[in-house]
């Protein structure tokens, strides 16, 4: 017979009452997802209930196995050390099983939730100031900041996924503390880039003093640069896709998780901006250039302005081989034993700072 189970959402805690309330709302949303299991939440510090109290409540409700997940975006010291220490001690003291899941991490659902928050800010700005294409907008993603470069690098990856997925003209990553660049110098740097609109997006789960500081620094830099529209995007909060990701972290404790690098593969997950690649067959297109290296007799090659290599007409971004506008959206009937295959067009092939800019330069030489 299966052990009675309970779910524990483990937070850091905040001195902000609003942040504590928002965290409790996410716990309520998880109760809706797991109606057959008791769900509790707790904090490491600054707020009640503390983790031990939440664990006590689950044990009193009859749970003999607890599925615990960190209520955090990325794994740094709190998720890697502090929470496991509390859970392991509690497990040893009370003789019940506590399984610990992973953080929210870099996940397609989290990126989509972030994109929704950014798009809401863009829509407000368009309504107030008139529409601007995204390639004329600079995105600034602000993370919490940690002494763990692994967590900091994940903020940068989220920023890049939003940048490329939504086609912004430029993107910078800053942090509210601990590491660099901090918010104000990051925004001061961005103000010199020449963009008419800057969207500042705090990649945070909940409100609190750090959110207030991020918006405060935004106001300060905006006042010093009145010619630029500084737009403040909302943080993630209880976006449905955030709750979905928390629920998935609980379930994968039971079912196992994908530990290969396929979680963010655009062919296996619906990645922002690259939805057309989802489910594409695994068919190589490199047979176009087999044997056509620099020394291949009779090869028709030319220097490529994009990659410092040779061009055979099979490149996905040059104008040859029916690639006008840098699109590559066709099937090949090769008659040579190779399967038909299809490449979705790169969604931002016309980005003014992308391949288009290099081809323009090459054409002027």
Topology:
Layout: E1 5-11, H1 17-33, E2 39-43, H2 51-60, E3 65-70, H3 77-94, E4 97-100, H4 108-129, E5 137-143, H5 149-166, E6 170-175, H6 183-191, E7 197-202, H7 209-224, E8 229-232, H8 240-255, E9 302-303, E10 310-311, H9 355-364
Keywords summarizing the entry:
single chain; 365 residues; alpha/beta; Rossmann fold; 3 domains; 4-stranded parallel beta sheet; 10 strands; 13% strand
Walk me through the structure.
By secondary structure, this protein is α/β, with parallel strands linked by helices. It has 3 domains: 5-103, Rossmann fold, CATH 3.40.50.1400; 108-232, Rossmann fold (3-Layer(aba) Sandwich), CATH 3.40.50.1400; 282-365, no CATH class. The chain is 37% helix and 13% strand. The chain has 9 helices and 10 strands. The protein has helices at residues 17-33, 51-60, 77-94, 108-129, 149-166, 183-191, 209-224, 240-255, 355-364; strands spanning 5-11, 39-43, 65-70, 97-100, 137-143, 170-175, 197-202, 229-232, 302-303, 310-311. It has a 4-stranded parallel sheet with strand order 2-1-3-4, with helices on both faces. Helix 1 links the parallel strand 1 and strand 2. Helix 4 packs antiparallel against helix 8. It is globular. The N and C termini lie far apart (75 Å).
Strand order of the main beta sheet, please?
2-1-3-4
Which structural class matches the secondary elements?
alpha/beta
Number of domains: 3
Order of SSEs: EHEHEHEHEHEHEHEHEEH
Number of helical runs?
9
Helix share of residues?
A: 25-40%
Distance between the termini: 75 Å
Anisotropy-based shape: globular
Q: Describe the biggest sheet? A: 4 strands, parallel
Overall mean pLDDT: 84
Radius of gyration: 25 Å
Strand residues, percent: 5-15%
Instruction: Output the CATH class name of the largest domain.
Output: Alpha Beta
Low-confidence stretches: 282-302, 305-336
CATH architecture of the largest domain: 3-Layer(aba) Sandwich
Count the beta strands. 10
And the CATH topology of the largest domain?
A: Rossmann fold
């Amino acid at each position: 017979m299966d052990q009675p189970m309970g779910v524990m959402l483990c937070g850091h805690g905040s001195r902000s009452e609003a942040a504590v309330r928002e965290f409790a709302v996410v716990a309520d949303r998880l109760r809706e997802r797991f109606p057959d299991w008791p769900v509790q939440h707790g904090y490491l510090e600054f707020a009640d209930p503390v983790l031990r109290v939440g664990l006590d409540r689950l044990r009193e409700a009859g749970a003999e196995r607890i599925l615990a997940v960190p209520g955090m975006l990325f794994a740094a010291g709190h998720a890697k050390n502090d929470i496991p220490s509390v859970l392991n001690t509690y497990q040893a003291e009370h003789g019940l099983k506590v399984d610990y899941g992973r953080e929210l991490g870099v996940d397609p659902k989290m990126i989509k939730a972030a994109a929704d928050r950014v798009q809401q800010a863009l829509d407000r700005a368009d309504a107030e100031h008139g529409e601007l294409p995204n390639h004329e907008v600079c995105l600034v993603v602000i993370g919490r900041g940690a002494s763990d470069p692994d967590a900091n690098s994940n903020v940068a990856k989220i920023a890049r996924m939003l940048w490329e997925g939504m086609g912004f003209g430029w993107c910078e990553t800053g942090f509210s503390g601990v590491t660099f660049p901090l918010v104000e110098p990051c925004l001061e740097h961005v103000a010199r880039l020449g963009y008419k609109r800057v969207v500042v997006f705090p990649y945070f789960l909940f409100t609190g003093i750090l959110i207030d500081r991020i918006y405060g620094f935004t106001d300060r830099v905006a006042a010093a640069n009145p010619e630029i529209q500084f737009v403040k995007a909302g943080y993630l909060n209880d976006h449905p896709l955030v709750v979905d990701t928390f629920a998935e972290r609980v379930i994968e404790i039971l079912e196992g998780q994908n530990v290969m690098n396929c979680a963010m593969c655009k062919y296996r997950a619906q990645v922002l901006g690259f939805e057309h690649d989802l489910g594409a067959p695994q068919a190589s297109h490199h047979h176009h250039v087999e044997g056509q290296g620099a020394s291949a007799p009779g090869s028709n090659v030319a220097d490529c302005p994009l990659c410092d290599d040779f061009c055979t007409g099979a490149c996905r971004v040059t104008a040859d081989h029916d690639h006008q506008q840098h699109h590559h959206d066709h099937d090949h009937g090769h008659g040579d034993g190779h399967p038909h295959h299809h490449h979705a067009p790169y969604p931002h092939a016309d980005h003014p700072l992308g391949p288009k800019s290099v081809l323009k330069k090459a054409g002027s030489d």
